[in-house]
Amino acid sequence: FIVCGQHPAFGYVDQPPGVPLIAVSLYQLGLGAWGVRLPTALAAGALVWLGMRFARLLGGDRLASGLAGLACAIAPMLMGLVATLNTSAFDPLAWTALAYLLVKAGREDDGRALVLAGLVAGLSLEIKYSMLFWMLGLTIGLVF
To answer: pTM of this prediction?
Structure first.
């Protein structure tokens, strides 16, 4: 990713430009191995917080919110994904944020949540192309 980031492009054969640009930026700051892992650790922490918010949005109490956060924090798959900077490390946060914002828009009739959902989807497309397939599936599901 660092090498790809040193040769910026609008996209590469196997990934969009987001992760390579993050990797080269942190590499040039001289933060070392822990610095390159910092964005994924922050994404994992944000996922724990968002999971707790999502439990509250769905009507859960403090216990439900705490258990949701705990489940997110100790999920083995998440721990493996965020161990290194890669394109899949941001997927759980992006997909959970998109689901949260769509549920929030539906329950509270909040137009701003739909705009934020579009922003999250767009940013996620700069990290990994898989969000495109999810959006296509959602669109096809809504049409039929």
So the answer is: 0.83
